[in-house]
Structures are given as C-alpha cells and as structure tokens.
Amino acid sequence: MVLIKPDGVRRRLIGEIISRFEKKGLKIKALKMLWLTREKAEEFYSVHKGKPFFESLIEFMTSGPIIAMVLEGDKAISVVRLMIGPTDGREAPPGTIRGDYALSKSENVVHASDSPESAEREIRVIFSEEEIIDW
Predict the structure, then answer these.
(1) Does the N-terminal or the C-terminal CB of the chain have fewer CB atoms within 10 Å?
(2) What is the pLDDT at residue 103?
(3) Which residues in 8-87 belong to E strands, given as ranges?
(4) pLDDT tens digit string along 54-73?
(5) Which helix (H) or strand (E) holds 134?
(6) Domain 2-131 annotated CATH 3.40.50.620
(7) DSSP code of 38?
C-alpha cells in the first residue's frame, strides 16, 4: 500500500511518483484519489495512536486529497521502501522519492506499508475487494 500524501498531491508529483513505480516493474492493482476523513485517517494510522505526533499526522493527512495505490511485484514491500527512502526527507539519499522531493520529516510526500500485515490492514481501510484488480 502506497499513499501519495497531501503535500505530494499539492505539489503535483502524482505522475512522477507513479511513473517511478511503474518503471521499476511494479504493477498497479488499485488506484484512487480521495480525501481522508478524520475517522479513516485515525483508523489508517491507528498504530501511532497515543504517540506525540499522532494529532499533527491526522491533521496533515486530512488537509487535502491523497492518492492511494496497491502495488504488486517481487518483494514489492521492500522494493517500495527502498525506493521511497527514510522517513526524514532531509536524510533520504538523492534518487529516492523522499530524497528528491520531501521537505521535512512530516511532509515527506509518500507513505508505504512496512510489512505484509500492515499492508493488508491499510488496504482494507482504503479499498474494497471489488476495487482491487487482478490482471
């Protein structure tokens, strides 16, 4: 599961980011633009509930539209995590999505699931089974 966060959408980086994943050979199984409600954002980021940054994360993620996508490919989760780089864009290497585009730790352009379990849970928050295309 990958999200292009509100800052990435605002900065018109959608095509560039999707293109990088496609050029890597990952297959898009689901894709949509939406504006997260507070409830959906809290459900999506429930693993961070109670942490000091939770409230600002929810406010940021509900501040504008996002792009959500399900990607498939050999070792997709680890490949995507390498492609996006570390959370803090100021420390992410050039050539990674965050290294090239992120402005801070909080406005870091993308979110990517960190495990198969996280991916399953996050996908269920955003997509129905009918929205995921097997091709």
Answers:
(1) C
(2) 87
(3) 27-34, 66-72
(4) 999 999 999 999 999 999 99
(5) none
(6) no
(7) H
